[in-house]
Structure formats: C-alpha cells, structure tokens
Design goal:
Chain lengths: 112, 111
C-alpha cells in the first residue's frame, strides 16, 4: 500500500525559517507535490519535484531524495499569511493512469 | 478567466436522497478528479477520469457515481448508499504534467 507521513502540526515565528518534512513509501512513484491549503479553502499548488535535488521558488523551496523516500518544504521569511495546512502528495502511475496520493497535511501556525 | 467551478458551495442531503455536485472547468484539461476531505484525514480520491466517457474508481468510490460526457464537466453523485456523506468535496483537473488545480469545494451536510 501507499504510506505518506508528515507532522500534524508545527509552530514558528514571523520572519523565521521552517522546514516541513514528508516521508513516503509507495510503488509507481512519478514525482512529489506540495500544496498549501488555508482553512475552508481549496488547495493551491506550490511546487513539484520529479528529480532529486532542490527546487526554489521565491520564499518557498522543496527538496526531494528518491532513494530515501524523503522530501521537505522550506519556507523562509515567514509571514502571518503563511499560517495554513501544507499537503505533501505523491504522484503515482500504474496501468497508464496518473493520480495523486495525499498525506494528512501539516498545520503550520505562524505567530508574531 | 480560466478556472474550475464547483457548485453549490453548501449542500444539504436528506436521509435516502441522492445529491449531485457540479464541477466545470474551462482550462481544456483532459483529466478530472474528485476528492473527499474529512478533518484529520487529508484528501482521499473518490473517482478520476483521464478522457471523456472513461473514468476509474479511486480509493473510496463506494456510495458515489460519476459521469464524463463532456471534457469540461465531471459531476459527482452522492447516493443514498453513502452512509457518512458529510465532508468537504473537492474537484480538480490537470494536464498531462499532472499538476492538479482545484475548485473552491462543496461542503455537504446531512439534515
């Protein structure tokens, strides 16, 4: 079966740096996604890693190690608006179909 | 503007009733998906469709049905067989690069 783990909650201070980890055990791995979801709203796409290494997009970076089944999302210069749930999702392909399997999400609370 | 539209935003179901959630996209995406989100459970895949007139069951398809008669539309019916339908339902669509874009969601409750 598929198994994706990420911490349930994290707290950080405005202006700080936070790293949200995600580990996975899956078959048919095709890439790893990070989404941000504010309470009561739809998830929005943040980043996508298909190869090992670091992808940087402004204040957000995402890292992938396929051999270790490990990814992290790094958020720099935290702002209050970054308080949200961060969803790790693994892209899987089998029988010619691609789907996403989501972790349960990490709720990040940014305090002043 | 291009996007994914889900309606209604809130929906109430009576005992034994079937209800249909609408999802329309004008992004010209081939693939569409339905997810259910419960507190503390993350997103779970109900059904997905890669092309018109074809769809596949996801992890929790029991008690749900879908159709894909047009590329733009992927309605989800919550049948009376779904005994615990209260949840936040999210529709998504994607191109072949698999980045999924989500609608604003429908919150379904039972009366």
């Amino acid at each position: 079966g598929q198994n994706i783990d990420q911490p349930t909650e994290m707290t950080a201070t405005e202006g700080a740096i936070v790293q949200i980890n995600c580990t996975y055990q899956t078959s048919g791995f095709n890439g790893l996604f990070w989404y941000q979801q504010h309470a009561g709203e739809a998830p929005t796409f943040l980043s996508y890693n298909v190869l090992d290494g670091l992808e940087e997009k402004g204040r957000f970076s995402s890292f992938l190690s396929r051999s270790k089944g490990y990814s992290y999302l790094l958020l720099k210069e935290l702002q209050m608006k970054d308080s949200a749930s961060y969803l790790c999702a693994v892209s899987l392909t089998y029988s010619g179909y691609s789907t996403l399997t989501f972790g349960k999400g990490t709720m990040l609370l940014v305090s002043p | 503007d291009g996007g994914i539209t889900q309606s209604p935003k809130y929906l109430f179901r009576k005992e034994g009733q079937n209800v249909t959630l609408s999802c329309e996209q004008n992004l010209n995406h081939d693939a569409m998906y339905w997810y259910r989100q419960d507190p503390g459970q993350g997103l779970r895949l109900i059904y997905y469709s890669q092309i018109v007139n074809d769809f596949q069951k996801g992890d929790i398809a029991e008690g749900y049905s879908v159709s894909r008669e047009k590329k733009e539309s992927f309605p989800l019916t919550v049948t009376s067989a779904q005994k615990n339908p209260t949840a936040f339902y999210l529709c998504a669509s994607s191109r072949t690069d698999n980045i999924q874009y989500f609608g604003a969601g429908t919150r379904l409750s039972v009366l």
